Structure formats: structure tokens, C-alpha cells
Amino acid sequence: MKNEIKLRALERTDLRFIHQLNNNRTIMAYWFEEPYESFAELEELYRKHIHDSTERRFIVENEDEESIGLVELVEINNIHRTAEFQIIIAPDFQGNGYARTLINRALNYAFTILNRKRAINTAF
After folding, report:
1. Cβ distance 80 to 28 under 8 Å?
2. Which of 19, 62, 63, 97 would bridge 4 by S-S if both were Cys, CB 3.0 to 4.6 A apart?
3. 11-19: long-range contacts (C-beta < 8 A, 24 or more apart)?
4. Residue 66 — φ and ψ, nearest 5°?
5. Domain coordinates of the chain in residue numbers?
6. In what order do the strands lie in the sheet with 56-61?
7. β-sheet bridge partners, residue 82
8. What was the pLDDT predicted at 74?
């Protein structure tokens, strides 16, 4: 595995991929959220949060430009300079070392671009 991945902003056209991830019971068990949301619910969440300054969402693409995951920075707090980060890697791409790279990129973005002093991952 080359582990060459890129992050790009979440777009409306990515919602089908996100819907697949959000409806995977195994994935959502780590996110402390109930799986099986409808596509209409996901579209509404997208509309509600797309311009929310306390959240950043990125699609992860591999070297073949396949969507392989999602990185989120949420609960961005400008007073305390903190943020939480969350990562999902699609099941077909797990076990390839992508998580290590994504953690580093999420932390780098939080500390250098957003000027956070602390970033927290809430998954176990």
C-alpha cells in the first residue's frame, strides 16, 4: 500500500458514500450513534451543517481517487481553542494503515490551520 491519500471538502455528491458508512452497524458502534438513518435525514443534516463554523468534514480519497473514508473536526471551540476529531475508514479499506495517516493529518489541520491547542478523539 502506498498510503497516498488526500483530503478534500465534503460535497453534496458524497452523501451516498456517507449514507453507506452511516448505515453500517459496525462502524457506527464506534461513533456512539444509531445506524440506519435515511438518506433524507442525511441530506437535511448536510443542509443544516454545511456552513457551521464549528465543524469541518473531509472525504478521504486514495491514490485511485476512490472515496475510502471520512474525517471530521467537530465541536470546534474558538474560546478554548479545542476540537474533536473523528475518522471513519470504509470496511473494504481498513487494515491498510490509513488511520495513522489520517490521525496525523487531522491533528496537523487542527493545530496549524485552525490554531487549536487541543484535539480530542472520542472513539474507543
Report:
1. no
2. 63
3. 11/59, 12/46, 14/59, 14/67, 15/39, 15/42, 15/43, 15/46, 17/59, 17/67, 17/90, 18/42, 18/70
4. -85, 140
5. 11-121
6. 6-9, 56-61, 67-77, 82-89, 118-121
7. 77, 118
8. 93
pTM of the model: 0.86
CATH architecture group of domain 11-121: 3-Layer(aba) Sandwich (3.40)
- Below-70 pLDDT ranges, the chain: 1-3, 32-36, 122-124
| Locus of grid cell 495517516 | 101
> In Å, how far are 19, 56, 115 from 61, measured between CA atoms?
16, 16, 25
